[in-house]
Amino acid sequence: ENGVPAWQDVVQDYETIQNHWNMTPELNEDSSEVEVLKKCEDFAIILEKTYGNSGSRPSENETNTMGKHSKGYKSQGPRNPINEALLHQRQSLPIYSARNEIIRKIRDNRTVIVVGETGSGKTTQIPQYLMEAGFVRGFGSGIAVTQPRRVAATSISQRVAEEVGTRLGDKVGYSIRFENCSSKYTKIKYLTDGMLLREVLSDPLLLNYNVVILDEAHERTLRTDILFGLLKSIQKQREEMEDENNKRKENRLSQNNDKKTDGKTLDLENKQPPRITELKIVIMSATLDSEKFSNYFDNAPVLYISGRQYPVKTLYTKEPQSDYLDSAHISVLQIHLETNPTSGDILVFLSGQEDIESLEKLLNESNKNLPKHNKILTTPIYAALPQREQNRVFDKTPPNMRKVVLATNIAETSITIPGIRYVVDSGVHKSRDYDSRIGVESLLVQPISKSSARQRMGRAGRIGNGVCYRLYTEYDFQKLDENEAPEINRRQLTSVILTLKASGIEDILNFDYIDAPSIPSLKNGLIELYSLEALDDSGKLTKLGEWMAEFPLDPVFSKVLYESVKYKCTREILDLVSAQSVETLFYSPADNRQTASEAHKKFQSIDGDHWTAINLLKMFDSYRENGTKIIVFDQDSEYPTENPEYNEKRSEETKAEGSGQRLSSRKEKEVMSAGKLEYWCRQNFVNYKNINYVFRVRKQIETMLTRMGIDVTVSCGDDTDSVLMCLLSGFFYKCAMLQPDGTYRSLVGTQTVHIHPSSTMFRKRVAAIVYNQLVFTNKLYAKGVSSIQPSWIQTAAPKLYGNINFSS
Ligand code: CDP
Ligand code: MG
C-alpha cells in the first residue's frame, strides 16, 4: 500500500503542475496515465516531503478544488511553433554531433568542463540538450546559465526562446540587474554572474536549479571566480543533504503514512518544495586553462568541441596610430570601397559607448558621400544600449548596404554576429584596475591581451576566409600580455566581500578561491566595509550590512541611499545614484563645443558635478511633466519615455513634428511628446539615450526602496549641503584636500589628484572635494567632482578618520 496515496495526489494536482511537465520532452499528449505517473516519481517524493510525513496533507476540500479539472496529461495553452529553419540551423552547428556525448558526460559526472570555439553552439545548445534529456525535473528554474555581461544574457535568451518555440520569459528567460524576465515556469534562465550571486543570498543551496552553467569562464570575471568557490561548496552540501534525505526517505516509507491532515494548505504557487538533488556544474569557455579548472573541480573531465573556422589573414599597421578612432574610420571606408559589398560585413572592436558613438557619427557623415547603391549601415552594440537597438546587429543587411557592427568586447566571445568577414581591431578595451597600495580603482582604456586579439581575429573566419585589420603594429602586438590577469586581482573587493559575508562565509581570507586575491586588497575591502558600518568590530555583518547586501547596488551607493532617510533627501540621492549608471549625461560634439558648453551652463551648480546632474534630471522631469500637459490632449495618455517602442517609432516620425500636422490619433500624440523630449535634449546637448537609461534605473531603484518601506518622495529642495553630506556617508573614501599649489591630495593613498577638464569644478580651488572616480591618463584625474567642507569628512567616517584634524 505504501506510496499509493502520494500517487493519487499527483494526479489530482495535475492541472496546477502540468505546465511543469510540458518541459519534459519524453512526455507527450499520448502518454498514458501510467507513463505520466512514472515521470512524476520525483513529484511523489516532493509531495511526501511537503505534507506526507508531517501529516499536513491538504483537507479533502482543498484536494478537490485543486484536482477538479484534472486527470491525465493534456497540453495546455498556445505554444509558439518551432521554426523549422531554426531547427535545421541548430542541427548543423558543430556541437550537434557531440550532443549525446555531452549529455552522457554531464549525466555521469558532477562537474564537467566544456571548451569550444566561439560560435560552436555551447551557450545556446547545451542548456537545451540538458532540458531535452530530462535534466530539469519538478519545480524550480532548472538550468541557470551565467554570463558576465547583461547584453549577452538578454540577446542569447531571446535567441534560445525562439529556438525552443516559447515566449521569452516563459520556458526560457533571463535575469539581469533591474530587469527580471523569467517566471516560475522558466526552465532555462540566462543571468549575469552578479545575479546568480544575489540568488545565493536568498536560496543558499540554489535549490531552484538542477544544473548551473558558468559560461565564459575564461574571462575570469570577479563574480564568476567567486561563484566557482561558492558552487563547489554548495555542490558538496547538497550531496550530504541528499544522502541524509535518502536515509530519511527509507525510514519514512517504512512508517505508516496514513496520517490525517492538520488543515494546512498546500501552497504550490508560492512555496517551492525543497528538492535536494545533486547539483550539476558545467564550466564553459572559449579558451581556457582547462587543466587548472579540472584540478580545482576535483579532476572534472574536460570536453573539447571543435568549431568551424576558416583561415583569417592578419594585417598590422606599419606605424603606430595616434588616434585609433580616426584609423578605424579610414579602415572601414577602405574595406568597404575596396571589397565586394556582398562578400561580408565588417565588425569593429572599440573600447566603449563613447568610442562607438563617435565612430558612428563619423561613418554616418561619410555615408552621405557614398554612392546610393553602396551605403554603410552602422549597428552599435554595447551594454547600455536599449534591448531593441541591440537586436539590430542580428537583422539581415538590406540589399545595397553593408553592415558595420561597432562593438565592445561583448562581440569577442559572448555573442556571435552572423555574416562577418572583416574585423577591425582597435587593440583597446575598457578595463578596471585596482591599486591596493593606494586604494584607487580606475576604469581605463587599455591595450587588450594577445588572447583577446586572437579572439577578435577569429570573428572574421566564420563564413569564409576573413581578414583582420589590427590598428597597431606587429611589434606592439608582441608586447601585449598573453592573458589578462583575473579580475579578482584588479578589483576593489568591497562588494564581493559583502556578498560572501551575507552568504555565510565568515573567513573570507581563507575562502576556496581559484586564484586568491592579494591580502592587502582583501584587507582594504574589510576596512572599507567596517568604515561603512556594514561590519561590526568582530567582522560580522551588521543590520545595515545585511540591508546593503540585499540591495543590488554597489555597497557605497546602498549606504548613501540608506542614509538619505536621515538627511531627508531621498529624492535627490535617487537622482544622483541613478545618474552614475551612465558614463555621461551631457555631450559636447567636437565641432560645436562652445555652443554645447553655453547650453550646459543652465544646469551647472557651483557645488559641482553631483548637483549639476541633479539639476539636469530635475529640469528634464519638470519639462517632461509640463511638456506633456501641453502636447497630450488625451486625458489618460501616459508618458511615452519609459517605453522603448515609442522611442523607436519616434525616431521615424520625429520629422513629421515640425510640419504642423494636426494630431489625430492618440499614438501620434505620444510619439510627438517623445520627439519633443529628444528635441529638448538636442537643444541642451544632453544625451537622450543615456538620460532615458538613467530614468529606467531610477524607476527600478525607486520600486526597490518603496518595497523596503522607504519614502522616495522626500526631498530637501535645494539644500545642497544635506545631499553632499549624505553622499559623503558612502564616499568618504573618495575625498581629496586642496594643496597650496592648487592640486588636491587624496585622503586614502595620499596621491596628487587633478580635477578632470570635463568637470564643472575644473580649475576651481576649494578646501576639499569628493569625486566619483579617479582616472589615470598622463596624470591622476578626479571625475565627477563636488566641493565639500573638510569637517564633513570626519562626521561621515569617524571610524576611519577619527583622529585626523582636517581643519589645519
Ligand atoms: O557559445 P558559443 O560561442 O559556442 O555559440 P553560441 O552563442 O551558442 O552560438 C551558436 C550559433 O548560433 C552561432 O553560429 C551564432 O551565429 C548563432 N546565433 C544566431 O544566429 N543568432 C543569435 N541571436 C545567437 C546565436
Ligand atoms: Mg557562448
Helix tally equals: 30
Q: Strands of the largest sheet, in order across it?
A: 4-3-5-2-6-7-1-8
Rg over alpha carbons: 29 Å
Going by helix content, strand content and strand pairing, the class is alpha/beta
Strand segment tally: 21
List the helices and strands and how they pair.
Blueprint: H1 4-12, H2 14-21, H3 33-39, H4 41-52, H5 60-67, H6 84-91, H7 99-108, E1 111-116, H8 122-132, E2 142-147, H9 150-164, E3 172-176, E4 179-181, E5 188-192, H10 193-202, E6 209-214, H11 222-254, E7 280-285, H12 290-296, E8 302-305, E9 312-316, H13 324-338, E10 345-349, H14 353-367, E11 375-381, H15 387-390, E12 401-407, E13 420-425, E14 428-435, E15 440-447, H16 450-458, E16 466-470, H17 474-479, H18 494-502, H19 519-531, H20 543-550, H21 555-567, H22 570-579, H23 593-600, H24 609-631, H25 644-657, H26 666-683, H27 688-707, H28 720-731, E17 735-738, E18 744-746, E19 752-755, E20 768-776, E21 780-788, H29 790-796, H30 798-801
Parallel strand pairs: 1-7, 1-8, 2-5, 2-6, 3-5, 6-7, 9-16, 10-12, 10-13, 11-12, 13-16, 19-21
Antiparallel strand pairs: 3-4, 14-15, 17-18, 17-20, 18-19, 20-21
Helix pairs in contact: 1-4, 8-9, 10-11, 13-14, 18-19, 18-20, 20-21, 21-22, 21-28, 22-24, 22-27, 24-26, 25-26, 28-29
Features:
about 800 residues, binds magnesium ion, disordered N terminus, 21 strands, binds cytidine-5'-diphosphate, six-stranded parallel sheet, about 45% helix
Q: What is shown here, in short?
A:
The protein is built from 30 helices and 21 strands. With 808 residues, the protein is α/β, with parallel strands linked by helices.
